[in-house]
From TrEMBL:
The keyword Nucleotide-binding is annotated on this UniProt entry: yes
Entry keyword set: ATP-binding, Helicase, Hydrolase, Nucleotide-binding, Signal
Keyword ATP-binding on entry: yes
Name of the protein this chain belongs to: DUF2388 domain-containing protein
Molecular functions per Gene Ontology: helicase activity
Upper lineage: Bacteria, Pseudomonadati, Pseudomonadota, Gammaproteobacteria, Pseudomonadales
Residues making up the signal peptide according to the UniProt record: 1-21
InterPro entries, per database record: CHP02448
Domain of life: Bacteria
């Protein structure tokens, strides 16, 4: 009976370690995918709007937005969001991604 319990415990341990490894891989893939999406949005916005006066004027508001995790939404930032989305309707970026992109300009 002791040998059966030992084998059962070893099998459960092996299954548990495999589950942790696969969940780590899934989590890593999700994080990398999110970073890639943010990077793509940032590069699209920064290359298109580097000299745009509306977007450049929103930098301080974007900094406040990012620092407060979206709690502070300035008028200039809202205007820049609207302007960017009108100019690039195919862009599917969140407000947070756009604010970060504006900060990199």
């Amino acid at each position: 009976m002791s040998r059966l319990r030992l084998l059962s415990a070893a099998a459960l341990l092996a299954l548990a370690s495999n589950a942790h490894a696969s969940s780590f891989i899934v989590t890593t893939d999700a994080v990398v995918g999110a970073l890639k999406a943010t990077s793509d949005a940032t590069s699209d916005v920064t290359s298109s709007f580097r000299d745009d006066k509306i977007v450049r004027a929103a930098r301080d508001d974007a900094a406040s937005f990012v620092a407060t995790e979206g709690a502070i939404r300035g008028v200039k930032l809202e205007s820049a969001f609207d302007h960017i989305r009108q100019q690039l309707p195919q862009l599917s970026a969140t407000d947070a991604q756009l604010a970060q992109a504006i900060l990199t300009i």
